[in-house]
Design brief:
The complex is a heterotrimer of chains A (about 220), B (about 200) and C (about 190). With about 220 residues, chain A is α/β, with parallel strands linked by helices. Chain A contains 9 helices and 5 strands; from the N terminus they run αααβαβαββαβααα. Chain A folds into 2 domains: about 1-145 and about 195-215, Oxidized Rhodanese, domain 1, CATH 3.40.250; about 150-190, no CATH class. Chain A has a 5-stranded parallel sheet with strand order 1-5-4-2-3. Chain B has one domain (about 15-195). Chain C is built from 10 helices and no strands. Chain C has helices at about 1-15, 30-50, 55-70, 70-75, 80-85, 95-115, 130-150, 155-165, 170-185, 190. The interface of A and C includes residues 215, 216 and 217 of A.
Amino acid sequence: MKKFWLNLSMNRKLALIAIVFGVIALFGGDPYGGTTIKINEKDIALSTVGNSDKVSVTELADWIIKDKSDFELIDLRSDEKFSEYTIPGSQSIPLPQITSSDLMRNQKIVLFSDDDVAASQAWFILKSKKYKGVYILDGGLNAWKEKVLFPKAPLNAGKDELAEFDKMKEVANYFGGQAQTDSSVAETKQQIKLPTPNLSTTKTVAPTGKKKKREGC
Amino acid sequence: MNAPFFKFDYFNSDVSLIIAFVIGIAFGIALEKGGFGRATILASQFYFTNMRVLKVMFTAIVTAMLGLYFLSVIGFVDLSLVYLTQTNLLPMAVGGFIAGLGFIIGGYCPGTSMVALATGKLDAMIFVGGMIFGILVFGEMFPGIEEFFNSGFMGTVTLPSYFNLSYGLVVFLVVLMAIGAFTAAEWGEKKMAAKTGKEVL
Amino acid sequence: MTSITKTITKALEKEDGHVHEHHEPKSYSNPYLVGIGLGLVLLAAFVIMGRGLGASGALSTIVAVAVNTIAPEHSTGNNFYSEYIGDGSTNPLMDWLIFQTLGVLAGGFLSGTISHRVFKGVEKGPRISTRMRFVYAFIGGGLLGYGAKLARGCMSGQALSGGAVLNLGSWVFMMMVFAGGYAAAYFMRRQWT
């Protein structure tokens, strides 16, 4: 065996090595499925329990008004729902496509959908893929509508609470919503209309809006 | 540690430019050592007198393919994060044919012309000028040919997924094909050398 | 495994260890060993960056930036140029492929210098004038630039990098390059042989 090997010319040796690797590859399995990533369960469990991976809707509203741009706001709902209404500045990545998106692992990412469920699923997927700053919008779009777009006046409000409510009214107006005072709730309950998405504030309606440089040659 | 390192943010894009330079140097050395800085050697591929281009290229493909395959199978590289150019079948076939014509007429391809330029070949300089002109013409014509450019879109599709074969089997077939091609090339070179009485460069 | 590396290094030494006259260009190395080296460079690009090698992309970026500088309103309406210029958040010249191509120039020069293969000259067969060779070089370069853009990549970006990740389009491209080359080889024989 050894003699056979030594007698081969170098080119033949290389060819033989390549064939051996090729044969092993026949039984090697699927390279796309082989990736293993270690998940630090403790870390994930801690951040879930501690609510540190959640962003409240009022916080988010504040960020948008202040024009903070250090985060990516991701709408996980379907494209149709996205075009109906979305939070200004968000981009649409439906949940099934979350793994093939071009989000970066060092970005601050805020996920939302109608409620918390889809966002939590996406949060776990991204976390397990080593994305660092992933956050869930607490309560999702439902909470956004309830607390930001159409906030209700507190019953028997004190002075401070009224002042607070005035602020919320302003915020609601900013986003095209309307604060609900006690009387107007009854009247307009049927006709609460979602503001139509304002194209100038929605960053990424079309994929051309944010064109990254191509990677190929 | 997971790879590709850049996709896992082990370093930022500024560092990636330094890495680009270093990888480029290694690429340039390999091309130069392979004799790819000389148009006469590159062109002789098409007259069956010297099959270096085929040998170097297919050996490189086989090496990188095997390496990437095994590194992915053991879970080190996340293959889904390795960039795949999308496939537009017809534009790619037509573009490939035009590029092939350009290869034999001009004597270089883009990468090798850079090496030839660096080693003082004046025709490579002209060739690079021609390439810039060709790209400019393409850019100016682009609005008119955009439809064709985007036709035949198939997404990112690999040989295994297209032919519905296992990845490992395709790897094995590519190795076999390469070795078959090498054997034929060695045999052909000897035949041609006997015919022309010239030694292979 | 060590015996394999030993044989490879030994063979490399043999290849370069020939006694040469000074300043006599060294003969080129064994193509299979060079191929392995090139393959390892490509593999390093995949593992470190998650992308392959390229060449024509750097020239495209330079062309796009030049057009954008001369006639900005002309380039923004053109999807080809705008793809290389990006969204303006980053300098398009601070680009991976440009730095990689600069490296190729440096690496080629370095390797050529060490092997005494850097000298001013024109690559052509004996039966053609230098002037005609330049004309052909320009035409060929133009066709390659055009074809590579139409095919979304060149020999390095498509054939080599795409070939190693078994990309369907890249293999089609590679076969068509060889087809085009062999188809026209007969008509170009005066230039090369």
